[in-house]
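Q: For a teaching handout, I want to show students what a protein-ligand complex looks like in token form. Below are the inputs, and the small molecule is S-adenosylmethionine. Please produce the holo structure.
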Amino acid sequence: MSRWIDETLHPHFRQGFKADRILFDSATEHQRLVLFENGTFGRVLTLDSVVQTTEQDEFIYHEMLAHLPILAHGAVEKVLIVGGGDGGLLEEVLKHRSIEKVTQVEIDAGVVEFSKQYLASICREAYDDPRLDLVIADGVDFVASCAERYDIVLVDSTDPIGPGEVLFTDTFYGKAKNCLAPGGILVTQNGVPFLQGAELTNSLRAFKAFFADAACYLATVPSYAGGPMAFGWGSDDATKRQVGLETLEQRYRDSGIDTGYYNPAVHLAAFALPNYVAELIL
Ligand code: SAM
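A: Here is the structure, written as tokens, with S-adenosylmethionine included.
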């Protein structure tokens, strides 16, 4: 029998999903993990009642978090992913042949093990890739003591509640910046500005203090309700955000990747902000 499941992330607004079948409902050491099947989104993963990813729209989020900074950078070899236990981001990152090493720091081994078993349509074989170094640890501790330098750092975190809260602090951003190689880029999932404006304001205030170039870009992911979601961008190399269409098209062709959402025109357009978002990061 089907039932409705509400996402309880926001205080004054809820979205509900018809759950045709509950496939999993259990608590890990860190969070409650539920997987159910929905007629529109396919398998839906929630952690502590917040939607993390769905089979049908994950490509939008993961492509925009992976390919946009990788192609803007142009010569990425080493990537640090913080969070991202479902493996969808890892899978997109590893599509780039130029990438020699990915370190993924995920706090919850339970999410990784679960995703390999139940979300293989999203992570595919990514967790078996020899280029991956998977570290089970708190991202904030990892960046504080990390001696390695990465071309890009991607933060695929839960929202700023529970274990993900530390990944939205100035301490984390400062230490994450120290993990970047010269010309490196930090990109973060920064919530839905219409509903989580303070989160974006706070992150961009910190980015402006830490980086020569701070910005955000947008993509609409249907299961993250409330309008487009924001990705924070920080780099000391402002040219990474000024790469033109022709160069991006060349890099995209050379990469050989096949995408359902990302393309170079969308890449450039994603940095155009509606006024209500631009005002949040003034
Ligand atoms: N795309 C999702 C979103 O926008 O909500 C995020 C998906 S991914 C499943 C989020 C991952 O971040 C989870 O697997 C969670 O365990 C991990 N995480 C949360 N806090 C963390 C921390 N402090 N260090 C490392 N990983 C963390």
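A: Two things your students might notice: Residues 58-73 form the longest helix (16 residues). The mean pLDDT is 97.
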